[in-house]
Amino acid sequence: xxxxxxxxxxxxxxxxxxxxxxxxxxxxDTAGRVRGEGxxxxxxxxxxxxxxxxxxxxxxxxxxxxxxAVRDLPVPVAAVAVCGTSGTVLLxxxxxxxxxxxxxxxxxRAAAQARRAQETGAELWRALGQRVxxxxxxxxxxxxxxxxxxxxxxxxxxxxQADFVTARLVGGPVATDAGHAxxxxxxxxxxxxxxxxxxxxxxxERLEFPExxxxxxxxxxxxxxxxxxxxxxxxxxxxxxxTDGCAAQLASGAWEVGRWNSVLGTxxxxxxxxxxxLYDPTGVLYNHLSPDGTWLPGGAxxxxxxxxxxxxxxxxxxxxxxxxADREPAGVLSYPLVSRGxxxxxxxxxxxxxxxxxxxxxxxxxxxxxxxVALAERLCLAYVRQLGARVDAxxxxxxxxxxxxYWNQLRxxxxxxxxxxxxxxxxxxxxxxxAARGAxxxxxxxxxxxxxxxxxxxxxAAEGRFDGAFxxxxxxxEERGWLPAETxxxxxxxx
Length: 495
Fold this sequence. Notes:
The chain is α+β, with helices and mostly antiparallel strands. The protein is built from 17 helices and 22 strands. It has helices at about 55-70, 110-120, 120-130, 135-145, 160-170, 180, 195-200, 225-230, 245-250, 305-310, 315-325, 360-385, 405-415, 425-440, 445, 465-480, 485-495; strands at about 10-20, 20-30, 35-40, 45, 50-55, 75-85, 90, 100-105, 155-160, 175, 210-215, 220, 235-240, 260-265, 270, 285-290, 295-300, 335, 355, 395-400, 420, 450-455. α2 crosses α4 and α12 crosses α16 (about 465-480).
């Protein structure tokens, strides 16, 4: 993407995305034109279940990315917001300096602590339709305390990845947003920390939990040190961000109740908008709060494009796309899990990828993988409808898989509804939108920040073409004991 540094009327909004591999800063105007962008890499320590990064590296990379993004702007940034990876957490002192390691979103050392947190707060999690996982910041906080990160007599402060950077922009610790707080145990329906659960876990007296605000709330303004470090003007409003996943949904333009965003990269993530939280008795779906008080239910599947790169490393995928167009449906049925275990739309830790039948050739195998992901996507949408959600067309497609026009069309055909692909998407754009909303712009005023690139309608000739494969996949998942019978019945009738 090339920034448009020409003169332009109106304000510019800055979004900063703290990713796993790097930090990206994007300056965008209300018409969706990129006015400046910057990036800087990040590294960490991975060793088995351990995954840590240095918070100082987040700030150093953010400084570099922001300074690059704002260097040639025609106007000052009007507001800035930051997003981070969900579940990444550390402890700081009262001045915001780290006193523990920063455990990344996929650090897996807190499995035992997750089980204890789930058991201790079972009644609350059941009411919320949530299940504590080892990736949750709440489980990691228990692990940190047990490892001695909170000595007796000292109450370090809970800090999420985005909080660390916004604190440096402002010049001191800030409130956290409800998006990052969710996996730290925050009761999004009661709008409060569950003190009784935290007390039973021994965390309430050992840790200081931050104030929680809605994404889009103004946290403060860029201070003198933050301005000098980043090139932002002192006094620039700093707006509460959200998780990278919720930010990516904002970037998709799926903002109204009934709209859904399907993010297909290595794995598949489905996020939508509902007027009320969706209650999920299995706990595979969770509900974030949106900036305007609606809800953002979502779930992450373990199927995805990663199955293609594993099966066809270095292949000419456009050529395979062209060949696959003649195999609809494929001669075999594939359930393309990227790794062992499924997380959405059902929980099956022992689930494994499978193929029913023997592929005639590589084209058949490739076509089955493409179709298998789309069929799983259809099952995900059926599940949220089963829980009571509206699913209005078109579904917005984002993620690396949207580079394949054939796959976009195939997904529209399998889903039986139109799909839309934005011109650009990503978490940095999403928090730039959030910065504009937090600074007082209405939804209608910022709608132009998300531009439509293409739309794909289901082909009439493909109507019903994949119904048999979908029914067969549902049957196979139920027969293996992974897909609950009630969900299977609903999917067969309504999916």
